Amino acid sequence: MKKLQKISIFFIFIVFILGFLSSCKNSKKDPYASIRDIKNPTFRDYLKIQKHLKKDKREYLKLFSISSKNGSNLQDKNYLKKAKEFRFVGKKRQMKPMYEKLYFNSSKEDKKRCIICYTSYNKNYPDGVERLKKALSLIGYKGHFIYRIGSWPNLDEGSLKYSHVLFAFKPFFFREVKNMGYENVLWLDSAILPLQSLDAIFKKIEKNGYFGYKANFILSEYINEYVLNLFDVSINQANFIQTIEAGILGLNLNSFVGNTILDNWQKSAENGGFYSARHDQNALSLIAYKLDLKKFEDSHISRPSEIKDITKDSIFFLDRSIPYWHGAAPA
Q1: Strand spans (E) along 181-294
Q2: How does pLDDT run across 176-218, given as a tens digit for each residue?
Q3: Which domains are present in the chain?
Q4: pTM across the whole model
Q5: What is the C-alpha separation between 87 and 49, in angstroms, rounded?
């Protein structure tokens, strides 16, 4: 059975690579080839990419339903729905991409702390950004907040050509703000609600080079052999690897470890390392494993997802009323 599974994964990627090479020769199948300026896409360019994501047959999407532990046994169609219905612009022409940089109790020149958040125009994700802005004001946050709704981060370095990769916007947004000179950067999904001061979190980011939470499942449950092979990790090893959440992640971009995490995470987004059911989360977990990072924390008290579990020690709340798609928890 395992032999058959390996052969099927290998076959999927041979077909995918051949299809990709063919699409490079035919601009109709490559949404990026016809974009005049990849660093300055137009509203129409985004519509073109959206159409490609929805209509084009992409063989690698089959990997989203493969588990190295359970075989081809992941039937959650949300994986494919995310990949096919991603929106860079709103359904109405006036719903254009939004970008804003806000300063909370700090000067424009102070780039020591920054919170970043990106959302697509799908469902009620943009509402989460508005709520996040209010929450940061209420808790007395000190630092900058940069967010995007729609479009794509780090366009100046041509990252739009990876916009078909689910959740690749996370490492690319970190890269964008690093290029802007920010030091300690905290990513928050739009479903995350800060409940109290984030001073302690930023101190941990600065001291350790990173901050994040452990997830409650083992890596092998949601990953495939193709991605494991990219990281030179065996199925047996994956059975013992704790996964890391990607909805809250802090990086000290002035530190060796913070930059190493970012470099590897971005590389994973570019080389197929996000092609599994937990996309960015699995890649981040493998990077943490390979770098032997031990300071990720338990989330139950600090980041509950049920109102009844909130205590005076809770720093964040994961609000599942801001889902990616019906019932799909953020990665």
Answers
A1: 184-188, 192-194, 210-218, 242-252
A2: 999 999 999 999 999 999 999 999 999 999 999 999 999 988 9
A3: 2-84 (no CATH), 98-318 (3.90.550.10)
A4: 0.88
A5: 9
